[in-house]
Every structure is written in C-alpha cells, then in structure tokens.
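FAQ: What does the model actually see?

It sees only this:
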Amino acid sequence: MTRTVRRILVAAITLTLTSTACAAPSVAVAPSVQPATVPTLVTPAVNSFGIAAGNPSGKAKVPKAAKAVKTTKPTRVIGDGTPASCTSDAVVAAVAQGGIVTFNCGPDPITIVMTQTAKVRNTNKSLVLDGGNKVTLSGGGERRILYQNTCDPKQVWTSTHCQNQSTPKLVVQNLTFADGNSTGEKAEGGGGGAIFVRGGQFKVVNSVFVRNKCDTTGPDLGGAAIRVLSQYKNRPVYVNHSTFGGAPGMGGSCSNGGALSSIGVSWTVLNSLFTDNAAVGNGANPKRSGTPGGGSGGAIYADGNKFTIRVAGTVIKNNHANEGGGAIFFVSNNRTGTLRIEKSKLINNPSDRFYTRGYPGIFFLGKGKPKVSKSTLR
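And it is asked to produce this:
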C-alpha cells in the first residue's frame, strides 16, 4: 500500500481521522454488543458434509463466461469406477496434464485426501476439473489442494509477461474442497488454503469450500478458501452458485479473507453463499505497532488499485472480522475501484473495530460509495 493509504487506514482504525482523510467514506466503530445471531441457511445435502452449493434463492443472471463448462467428452477420467482407483496421485497427474478432467469413482460420494498439492502446468491451455457433485478433494488439514501460477518457473514460463497472459484457463466445478491448509506457505505472500491462483483466468462453479485455512496472522495475506493474483486483462474471477462455509464449524479461517482474498483482482460473485468464515488476524493493514497485523474481511478481502467487485444474488451472513469488514473489506489504493451489491443479503457480519458508516459489515475505500440495490445490509 502507499504511504497515503496507510495513513488513511490507520486513522480509520483509531477513529481519529484528520479533515483531509475524511474525504474518504465515513467510518463507524463496531458496536460493543453484536447483533443477534441469524440462523444458518439450511440447504439440501449433496456431499458428505450435508452442504449444498450456492444460494438456492439467488436470481442473478449468469453470463456465459460464468457458466459451467460442458464435460460430456472429457480429455481424461480419474478412476475406473471404484473408490480405490481415485487417488491423490491420479488427481495430481491429471491436473498436470490438463484438459477436461472428470471422475469415475463409483456411485457414492468420495473424499480424496491429497498427499501433495496438485499443480497446473502453464503449458496447458486449460484445465476443467469436474467432480460431478460427488467428489471432495481434501488437504487433510496439512496442505493446499490446488495451485496455478503463471509466474512460477517450476510450472514452466510460457511468456515474457507472466502476470498478464490468457492461459491457463482454470475451471473448478461440481466439487467440494475441504480442509485445505496453506499455513507456512511463503511464495507470493502465502494464503489460499484450498486454491491459489496467479495469472491466466479462473472461475468456480457449483462448488463447496469447507474448513479451509491459512496463516492466522499477517497484514495482507489471506484467502482461507481462495487467493488470486494477476488475472488476464483484469478480467473478473467468476464465483457462481458456490458455498463457502455453509454451517457452523464449516467456515474458513485466515488472517484476512475467511473465504476469498486478492490483490488487484476483480470478482463477480453470483448466487452464492458465505457463512461462518472468519478473519482472525490482529492489527489490521498496515499493522498497528506491537501486532502481527491482519484481521479484516470476514468473508472477502480485496486490496489493490483499480479493480471491481460485484456481488449479486448472494447471501453473506454470520461471518466475522477481528478488525474491519465482517463481510467485505475493500481498499482501492488509488480510489478507482468500485463495489456493487445487487439482490443480496449481508446479515450479521460483525466487524470488531471498524466499518464504513451506513454499510454494516463493509469497510470500503474506493470510488464514491458502494452501489447497493435491492439488497439488505444489517
């Protein structure tokens, strides 16, 4: 962050803004008494956790770019119809080879515990990973599950502008990601307990993320479920009809961004559900003296310069931030970024230290004010 932005954020946290800093949106102290708990939305069971993907009441229109990829003619299939054939090694090999990948593990839901992180090779134009609503990929509480990084030479550099290249195009759909853990990962600043993506293009469709985590402290790392950096031409990451948490004890936990985190990346979140996620760091960003930093963005943490976030047809509730933005933390350093919330519900997302006045659960520094339409914030 720039020195100017650091000064503004520190002032917001301490609530001693100067008259110049007050040109940014007004900031309110979180109430000492938190709102009453709102019951968690009950959704039909579709996996071993009993948690369905997405907000069943979401009515946001889904553009073609955000829809699932047709996988009736897969490039390769993991498994021969038996659970024993669906192994971590098979997943790692298929991900490295790319293409359209499906699973044939038998008629029942299956959990595949990964013994190593599956890594996308940058020489592949695309990877579509489709679990058919039966497959859970688990990090076993010990490792990140899936990794793509166009700027990682170990995955092969394919251009001189790795931070802005169109491929690989990564799609995860009809899958559950559970118990991913990127704690201790230092590359690219860490974060991304279940999935880390830098470069190319990325979307998530009809998937569930439960009990993922990353480091508990740090001013700018985050994304217990997903961390994203450097998307091609700043095209948005699409999150369509997916669930992050979904029940008490099932949410993600990280220093910042209990579900999603990014720097300089745009997001379009459609018809999805975020509950029971937490930003557990302490000291905000920049970190207060004597603290390790972090604790913002209970569900979503977004930082950078020019980027956009659009949340539509989505429920964000019962998430929590030790610092600011119990639902969404949004800071555009150069004040060009925009936040839009449409036909959504943000309910009971406490921010223990700061939020933007008039927008419960949100801390926003960007262009103008958040655009909120046909939505509930409380």
